[in-house]
Amino acid sequence: VQLQASGGGLVQPGGSLRLSCAASGFTLDNYAIGWFRQAPWKEREFVAAISWTGGSTSYGDSVKGRFAISRDNAKYTVYLQMNSLKPEDTAVYYCARARDSYARGSIPEYGYWGQGTLVTVSS
């Protein structure tokens, strides 16, 4: 099982970025995928998750209305569209595979993690 997050970078406040999570080594459409983030000196935080069908999504309170998660099972890829970015969104973003097909926000529900991609929001 491999998860490769990409798309991070430096962006100004109010800007947008789209992260991608490329999956391999398993059948993507059997599992929910989540995005989490970890800022320096802080605990890892739930950002968003999407069910295996894409019909169910969930978001952390701090990103609701600004971020959108989507998936393309045919491309084995999950996306995180991040809009109206704020300096407090600065973190390493990780994608992870859930233990089942449900879009949950709890870290123990995820068994496999990618290596992370750094997002820096700064002027």
Describe the structure.
The protein is mostly beta strands. Helix content is 0%, strand content 49%. It is globular, with a radius of gyration of 13 Å. The N and C termini lie far apart (37 Å). The model has no long low-confidence stretch (mean pLDDT 94).
Query: What is the overall silhouette?
Result: globular
Helix count, DSSP H or I runs of 4 or more residues = 0
Structural classification: mainly beta
The major beta sheet can be summarized as: 7 strands, mixed
Distance between the termini: 37 Å
What's the arrangement of secondary structure elements?
Layout: E1 2-6, E2 9-11, E3 17-24, E4 33-38, E5 45-50, E6 57-59, E7 67-72, E8 77-82, E9 91-98, E10 110-113, E11 117-121
Parallel strand pairs: 2-11
Antiparallel strand pairs: 1-3, 3-8, 4-5, 4-9, 5-6, 7-8, 9-10, 9-11
